[in-house]
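Trying the structure run again after the queue cleared.
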Amino acid sequence: MDYKKEISCFFFDYFIDWGLSETFSKYLNAFVLGVIVLVLVFLADMLVRKVLRNLAAYISKSSKTNFDDLLIKNRVPRRLAHILPLYLLIGALPFVLDDFLELQHVFSVILNLIGIILALRIIRALLHTLRDYFKTIPGLRDKPIDSYIQVFMIFAWVFTIFYAISLITPVSLGQALGTFGAASAIILLIFKDTILGFVASIQVAINDMVRIGDWITFEKYGADGDVVEINLATVKVQNFDMTITTIPTYALISDSFKNWRGMTDSPGRRIKRSLYIKQDSIKFLTDEDIQRFKRIGLITDYLTNMEEKLARINERDDSDKSIQINGSNLTNVGLFRKYMETYIQNHSAIHKEMLLMCRQLAPTPQGIPLEVYCFSKDKKWENYEYIIADLFDHFLAAVPYFDLELFEYPSSPNRDNFIDVSQ
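Done. Tokens:
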């Protein structure tokens, strides 16, 4: 008896001696060997992973380049660690299932398919590592590297699928590819929408364009809500009025839409809104105005510092202050803009570590826009709207304190232009 037979029947004789039937002994022998092999493979997988992880970490620390860091980030060593255990499992299969040739063939095909998938994952991880590395090179940052990787992965998937077919069926790889090429025209004609949806779903998944739970706005299809389902042909969006909008999957890559995930993932939600100030209410501030505005607590220190600073500048430049336009001066609109910015900086609901400013935009026929640009800490819709309302309730009420007026269209025509037709 050769060594293979001795290993494959290692427990068989013991079971026969215990009085078990020959058939049951074969199954029990295969089961026990299988459990032993799985335990050994599991231990080997853990050991190889630990060794490769520690080796990769050591190389990463001692290396001056960041390529090895990107390999670890994209889990290349972890993927490679599975190769040896899988090879051991394939090698042990003939010993475990020596008496079950059909079952051995089935498990052999399954393990080979797992090997193909593992190879694809390793290739994908390596390609992502190359992509991340190329993006660190200034001359390659604006190149469509992602597109090249996607095309390569599509061909890799197609080849893998046909190779898997050749493993499962008697059809060879060459015959499968030849048959597919001959039938491709008919397949494209009959299953055009399905193929478009399939390709689109792959691209959506690879590019991580949309996930279930994302809030998207797709004006073309009237969709504004949360994605509840993504399948081969359609994407279902539950709008905020609880209606459902169905969008073709390929529309996600052929048309433009807005995904609000970046906002929900960020630390804050943007506030961007303007007040329109009447231009004829803007003026230079007199000394009396400055003293009066110093009573407003948020800008007292600012006015004191600016008053001293402007006095030094005007004295240095020997400005004739008998005419107010001469020299450096404060304006009520500039002071109000500073007040708005200080108020926002002191508001507890505003994120202080993100961009925060109050800016003046270009004049419009409706007046001078003063825009608030900041981010709220709370991103929940109703709380977000409450924060905006709270800010602008205060600003709207504060405008008259700075001798300013808001622009608004007249509610009715001028009565002086009416013609009395009652006489």
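Residues 3-143 form one domain. Worth checking whether this holds up in the mutant runs.
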